[in-house]
Amino acid sequence: MGAAGAVPGLSCGLAGGTIALWAIVRHKERSVIVLASMVPFAFAVIFLLAEVTIGHS
Question: Which end of the chain is more exposed for a tag (fewer CB within 10 A), N or C?
């Protein structure tokens, strides 16, 4: 499916992780669900960093 299929997943991962960080920092939230939502966020950030630094050769 290519980039068209990756964009929604990447966007949702970044948005969910951002909201989870907001809940952790501002509201001192420590539930398992909020912490679990950091996993897709971490994958999205790692993917973006790899694309920026390494790219395609």
Answer: C
- Distance between CA atoms of residues 20 and 36, nearest Å: 9
pLDDT digits (tens, 9 = 90+) for 34-57: 999 999 999 999 998 998 999 776
From CA 41, how far away is CA 10, in angstroms rounded? Answer: 8
pTM for the complete prediction?
0.78
Instruction: Please tell me the distance from the alpha carbon of residue 40 to that of residue 13, in angstroms, as a whole number.
Output: 5
Q: What are phi and psi of 30, to 5 degrees?
A: -130, 25
Amino acid at 15: A
